[in-house]
Amino acid sequence: MADWNWEELDTSIGGAEKIPEWVQRLLSQDAKIRENALQTLLCYVANQGSLYTAAAGVVDVLLDYLGSVGRLPAEAWHLMNYIFGAVSCDATVVVEGRTVSLDGYVKARITSLLPLVDEVVADVTIEELDGLTWVLMRLAERSFAVIEILEKHLSSAMGERRASLVQAVADARDAWEEGNQFLGDV
């Protein structure tokens, strides 16, 4: 994970100095605080489909939290989904002394969470699974591993979790097929 200087990153309204506070609110135990933080962060880092450089730091903080705690609230998964789907106007960030594409960086970082998802998916709540599923559908367009992970966990799931995973597997297969429909034509 990169060490971010938040004062050098931008948001839709300017500087990103307050973004770490909003990310901490996104990880709160209080659902109302999390929802407010989600709406605020969406406006700041992925506003109406436009990606701002602070999104890179947000993704790293969330992935670090996931790695250390083993779960993310549904709102954090939703934010990562919006970040993954947003685009910048050729924005760049400096990571370990190298200038890289903002879009490429956040997509690569979110994609890199697949092995971690495999470890945590069995323990997430239904609400967290719903948020995680949105991110996984984005990733399924690029990686068949999403389907394999979901099917693995489907085999031992019961009740509402099983129903959610059955739907997620079907959606992931659709996303995979849609994302790879032209590969045979190349």
UniProtKB/TrEMBL annotation:
This is HEAT repeat-containing protein. The lineage of its organism: Bacteria, Bacillati, Actinomycetota, Actinomycetes, Pseudonocardiales.
